[in-house]
Amino acid sequence: MSKILTAVFAAMVCAVGLGANILANGDFESGTSGWTKPVGKGVWSFEDGKGRGGSHALVLTVTEPERETWQFSEPIPVEPGTVYRLTGWVKDLEIDKFHVGIGVVWMDVKGKRIDERGAKRLTDNDIKQDGWCRIEMETPPLPANAVTCKIFAGVGRKRLGTSYIDDLVLVQTASKPEVTRLYTSAYRDMAAAGEVRLAATFFASPVRYPETSLRGAFQIETTNGVRRFPAKLADGIATGSFDASELKEGTHPINFALGTVDGQVLGRRALDFTKVRELPKRRVSIDDKLRTVVNGRPFFPLGMYWSKVTQERLDVYTNSPFNFIMPYNDTRRESLDLCQKAGIMVACHLSGCAYVARQPPEKREATERHYTDVMIALKNHPAVLAWYLADELHLDYAEFLAARHRNFHAIDPDHPTWIVLDKVRHVRGLMDGFDVIGVDPYPIGNRGWPTETTLALPTQWTRQTAEAMFGFRPMWIVPQAFDWSWYPKGKEKAMAHVEKRLPTRAELSGMTWQAIAAGANGLCYYS
After folding, report:
1. Rounded-to-integer distance, Cα 412 and Cα 267, Å
2. Is the pLDDT of residue 214 over 90?
3. Three-class SS of residue 263?
């Protein structure tokens, strides 16, 4: 961060103070001041008498089912390494389950989006007699490259209705430095020998704690006693490495401590690492080169998404180099038997397990038991390659996914878990919930979005995914093998501009080899 920006943020903190509303015109009493010009005639408006207690309000009315519309505040300076809390009030006139989405998006110095979070209507936010419902959210500690943020509000397609927004408040909360996560490059944090790389993530406000004032160190017990070695710090990441051969056999903690040059300790984190004489023989595992190993032999996963498994489809599929499938909603033993006979392995679909968090508490236990029972029943089947735990999951489910991941590890240590995301920026935040990651760049006719229609997208996403995971986890990338115009059934108007065609053979080849050249350790085409 430049000295000028640091000075600006420091001045802002002193002038405004923690806990003060930094959102200009969040009550909309000054009309459009502080907000961008409403997008679309008759969609957004600033109206008197529609707010709480008869005040002004921001009003959104959507009458076209294929319309997607958003409203943004003007940019607001933010301080990296700190947390921001948004609260406000919303009143919906529900038509076709209309709910406006509100949240915070933060950007870098060039105005490029880094990430965003949406506000929630929590269970204790009872709708008052006047129809208003309280919303709230907190950002994570903002990264070092965050310079500004905006408040956003809007709805996606197929939403009809009117919503009123009022009394939005954005405050900066006190955020102590913290070490958030600690990872090793070893599969399941276990090794017999060789270099093991370490990465710890942390945050500390660069205004209060310039990077030159920080120090970090790892500590681990070796055969020659406790070894302490410095970490390299850059952009909220501490890195280091050690030789697993130096460790005593058994499980013991690796520690990381973040501090200052004058000896102040700002945060700590530890994880249990296991040194073994030799690695356990698993049916499927990941080696130190991030290769998949099946029954002791290297295996490059080359597959496709399926629906139901039938013998007729397998007869066609096996006349090809493909060696596995990911069938949605088909985890029957009979299907696994057919695949085994055909020489095809299966990533078993359990991706509903993460969405149990949406269910009422009284239903969760039965649903969780269902997924556990499926895994117990099938884990010893020779056709099982992996467990598919999540499909394009949001960060709101990070904690729940991590709990399922740990639970499934305990039930079945012989197979990896795999998830696929459509947002590369969410990879690190969900890293506690998977052994293998996939992302799904679909550039050919992708709804006309300029940032996602370049044929170089597979290269970009694969490289960014590897960087997000410090190169510690394998990637089974999901190339596009479909025509985007097939997707929006009932959304023909919204998708009228989409180029209606499949990727050409050359484009399929290009996307495939881009992913491999960028580091993919497997492929699973989506059609």
Report:
1. 34
2. yes
3. coil
Coil/strand/helix, residue 238 = strand
pLDDT tens-digit readout, 345-401: 999 999 878 778 778 888 888 888 999 999 999 999 999 999 999 999 888 889 999
Amino acid, res. 279? L
**Interstrand relation of 113-118 and 225-230 (parallel, antiparallel or unpaired):** unpaired
| Nearest residue to 139 via CA among 257, 260, 22, 265 | 22
Assigned token pair, 179: 């070490």
User: What is the token pair recorded at 232?
Assistant: 């390299």
Q: Give residue 132's pLDDT.
A: 86
> Which tokens in the block code for residue 316?
């066609």
Element (H, E) at 217: strand 214-222
**Using an 8 Å Cβ cutoff, are 102 and 118 in contact?**
yes
Using CA atoms, how far apart are residues 149 and 113, in angstroms rounded to an integer? 9
CB 320 within 8 A of CB 304: no
Tokens linked to 513: 């080899």
- Residue written as token pair 């958003």: 70
What are the pLDDT digits (tens) for 12-54? Answer: 444 445 678 999 999 999 988 899 865 544 578 888 999 998 8
121 vs 119: CA distance, rounded Å:
7
Cβ-contact 192, 70 below 8 angstroms? no
> Where are the alpha helices (H) located in 18-161, listed in sequence order?
none
Could you tell me which residues come within 8 angstroms of residue 396 by beta carbon, excluding any fewer than 6 positions away?
357
Q: Which of 24, 28, 35 is nearest to 165 (CA)?
A: 28
Q: Provide Rg for the chain, Cα atoms.
A: 25
Token pair in block for residue 455 = 């044929």
What does each C-alpha distance from 291 to 40, 71, 298 come to in angstroms? 51, 45, 7
